[in-house]
## 1
Amino acid sequence: MTTIYVKRDYFFLDTEYRQPSIHQHFAKHIILSVTTDLVVTFSENKNVYCKGIIIDSNIPHTVASQDNRMLVFLIDDTSILARNIDKILSEKSFVIIEDSIVKEIQQLYHAYLVNDVDNSYTKFFNFVFRQLNIDCQNIAITDKRIQWSLSYILEIDTIDSTIISDMCTKVELSKSRFSHLFKEQTGVSLNSYLALSKLRKAYQVLLKSGDITVSAMNAGFSSPSHFSASSQKFLGISASELIGNCKIFSD
């Protein structure tokens, strides 16, 4: 069973990665073992053995462990959270997380699983970021036009090619001004936020219908293959792998 939690600027996965081929994402990674240690392989066939690792975006890699189970944070590289992770990376392609920190995170996560505390995920995420010295303070969204836009994106079923112009018309701003204001208020680029929101909507339909085509078209993807490619590109998991084997949460 894969658990996916969609936040504004990152995805969290409790999943089983089955030794995927070397790949890269436009997202920063925080990868933590659940039980057995990780083996991280980079494109130059360099293996790193650890319990946890932070990897910069667009770094070719693959990750495995004895049971293939791991906790993965995929952070939008355009977000303020990603900029804070840059401070930890300090221009390195990856940083190994101390074993003692990973063990503390594992203990807390196991406690949540035992007690089935679904509504405690956000507390767990904040604990992880604090342990890693990553500033994850939520940005206060004060502009009513952006507040409306976030509610609108959340409520609609389909994110199509007209959504930005539709919102710009509603809030009476040019596309460039609206995009700038959105990034300023949320810490995430408008295009990235819409891409993540479209994936979330497709996943939610997929879990109910089990139909990739219906899920893709309802969410606003141009085709089922576009949806599958987007899922594989960002999460490293194809849409078909999620059918009947996933639960999803979002704010």
## 2
Amino acid sequence: MRNSDIITDNFNSEPEVVKINDLPECNQFEYDLMEEKDFKKYMKDVERMVRNSMEYRLMVKFLRENMDMNKCSFYKNVNNIDTFKIKIHLHHHPFTLYDICYIVYKKRCAYGEPVDVEDVAKEVMHIHYNMMVGLIPLAETPHELVHNKYLFVPLDRVYGAWSAFYDMYFPFMDLDYIENIRENVERTKAYKESEEELGVLAKKYVYVDVDSGIYDIPDYATVIQAMEKRIATINEEERLNHQPMRKVIHFIKANGEKETNNSIF
């Protein structure tokens, strides 16, 4: 497995020697797979290694460019052919990527094979390159709805031989996975693109009806009157702001009376 994020173009043919004088004995494992918290971290690391690998990214690129997987399967007009600002996700169905990683892990445990993160990820990618997975392109909204189980994806719409994975890894699947596949098969047989199935994607308008009359649209005469009043206020403010400044001079007469003289600068 090659991580494209850490590959550089700086290749040096000279061998690099790292000298270690005292190599301590390895007596700790990176994961305690008997602990639930560690096992979840382990599975997430396997899944992350698959997604970040160069092999996975090249496969996704090939599918987008050659298998028409750059447009949503539900919203036909939504695609990222011209811009990547629109996200089209390649959704795994009926087995998610996590499901595949977990089933592969169980198979390797059953056969006593190494379960290092890289070994499990390599077998998962081998399954992908043999197209023993189900994939369907989805836009942001349908993708969220599918994950939250508000939108059903028929099995005949996915690309890939997911059934080959099911047959090969059946002995290592939990009962939940098997029942989920059977349920998906039955729903696919009875599936119809009806309002009942796709109603969650339909446009719905919400109108606000307020009885108090606060939000009622005023009549034409009231609008004109309000606009004229506002224009008069603005003109008065402009006039006051542009008046010339005056200097006030006080003169004291001989008899002690004050005389004021206003002069303009």
